[in-house]
Amino acid sequence: AACFTGAGNAKVRKKSLTRDELKKIGVGPGLARLIGALEPAAAYGLIMGCLVGWLAVPPAIGLVMLMAGAIVHHARAGHYTESGFRKTALLPIFLLLFAAVTLTVRLLTLL
Questions:
Q1: pLDDT digit of tens for each residue in the chain (111 aa)?
Q2: How far apart are CA 20 and CA 24, in angstroms?
Q3: pTM of the entire predicted model
Q4: Which of 5, 10, 36, 64 fits 18 for a cystine, CB–CB 3.0-4.6 Å?
Q5: CB 2 within 8 A of CB 43
């Protein structure tokens, strides 16, 4: 949750480094602000899911879809083949796995 909160705040506040990185992979300023608002909202939803189990399901689904989109954008930009961008491009894969595991565990505990 902390990763998504920090990343989202940087996008909403239009940090120049974050904005430039997003522009390189084809994410415009409007989409960047939308993503920046969704990431912390989903993180807070995951935290609320600790209190009420089913509340974590929609944010986890949203984070899985958001990270899948990030992976597609990085792939289109060729970041998985460029050593300079590989570390940054691998982060959405890790976060996608984290969100998917969170979703799976939460769904299994609701049954």
A1: 666 766 666 666 666 556 677 777 778 888 888 888 888 888 889 889 888 888 899 999 999 999 999 899 889 888 888 887 787 788 889 889 989 998 999 999 987
A2: 6
A3: 0.81
A4: 10
A5: yes
Single out the residue of 87, 44, 79, 84 nearest to residue 63, CA to CA: 44
C-alpha–C-alpha distance, residues 61 and 99, integer Å: 8
Give Cα separations from 53 to 6, 99, 106 (angstroms): 24, 15, 7
What type of residue sits at position 60?
Answer: A
In angstroms, the CA 21 to CA 11 distance is 10
Alpha helices (runs of H) in the chain, residue ranges in sequence order:
2-12, 16-24, 29-51, 57-77, 86-110
Can you read off the two tokens belonging to residue 67?
């990270």
